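Problem statement: downstream parser choked on a complex file, so we are re-checking the raw output for the FE2/S2 (inorganic) cluster run. The parser issue turned out to be on our end (a line-ending mismatch), but while we're here, posting the original submission so the record is complete.
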Amino acid sequence: MSDISVGQLAQRAGVSVATLHFYEQKDLIHSRRNAGNQRRYNRRMLRRVAVIKTAQRLGFSLKEIAEMFRELGDDQDIDKDNWQRLSERWHKILTERINTLEHLRDELNTCIGCGCLSMDNCRLRNPDDTLGEQASGPVLWEDDSQR
Ligand code: FES
């Protein structure tokens, strides 16, 4: 299978050349140089770009995507098995994020129209009730005065 130029990859993947250079800087795709010192991409990079765009659409950062690619192995083709692993992992992460967001949204219900942002009463302001676990009252004030 012959390698393709950056322009061909950009056209086929539906992204700009600048985007491909950026992805390469971030270690998401790789190229080699030909005898004329021009970048050449293995056609597998087409699938990588499709996976990157899909993952971004799902809310994953480029840093997270690069980490996932590293775990798969940088030279690995994203074949059916690897896609299965990636998509199952994404599903799990998205489910956790949705659960967290739903929990935050529910806590926000009590804040609507309030605005106290109290360390004592507001679960969004003090989600772990860190002061409440130490003691009630002016614990924070006493600790701060000793510094
Ligand atoms: S702002 Fe008052 S409870 Fe959150």
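For whoever reads this later: Helices lie at 6-13, 17-25, 44-57, 62-72, 80-111, 130-134, 139-145.
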